[in-house]
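Section 3.1: Structural characterization of target chains.
Under the original work plan, the team committed to producing a structural model for every single-chain target entering the pipeline before any wet-lab resources were allocated. The record below documents one such target. The sequence was received from the expression subgroup and is listed exactly as submitted; it comprises 271 residues.
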Amino acid sequence: MKNGKQLSIFDIQLSPPSENEIPHIMQAAEKPREPPKGNRELCPYRIPTVEEIMKDFQSAATAYSTGKIFEDTIACGAIAISNAVDFTKYDEREERYKEIMSGYRAEEQRKLPALFAKVFALLSSVVYDNGAFNDYLGEIFMRLNIASDKAGQVFTPFHIAEFMARITMEENTEKAQNEILTICDPCCGSGVMPLAALDVLQSKGVNYARNVFIECSDIDIRCVYMTYLQLSLAGVPAIIKHRNTLTMETWDVWKTPAFVMQYTRFCKYDR
């Protein structure tokens, strides 16, 4: 129990390194590296790889398909993060969380938060010096072969998205040093284009947590979850909409913690 409320089993607490891991972390810290930017430092926990997480999803898919395990994991993870900051959506999202988890037996329910813990660790590592922007969830999604053939889902590789961002955003980096730079992706997929833009802006010394706002939309709720998680755990002020961009019919709106916590700065984009 916490403050009189039952804790979700998706509440994530990354443990400090074990005694066996400390020597490896110390060795990494002793190696020459770029000067820290602001308060950034070496990641204090082991960063799981895409391959490791993929294997975990595949091994967890015994009674259920890999696609269902993946979608339910990122859905519950997104709900857990949202409900920690966005209380306007709390009740309906809590009901959705309960609905998802009730479809699993008790021993199976423990698999999803264990999977999400590794997803959380990988995505949040971007804020440390040895973390890096990448479309991790998009890569996992495509390599697990769970994209929709009907929707023609083929996500842009990150290196292509980064190239596109680099040749189109050079003029915008100076603007983002002094005022808010806005980025919009009306068909965001897993968020690869915004992530690539953030990578370029960060390389130019832009404080994206303060001077960038991103709005994304997608018709596939799985894409909404993926983009929300990747931007939330990187500390990006953003709004992600479950929307048909052609008709503008909107079913749900997800606001990242960085947006909610800086609402007075970014409220003009809440429309």
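Residues 50-266 form one domain.
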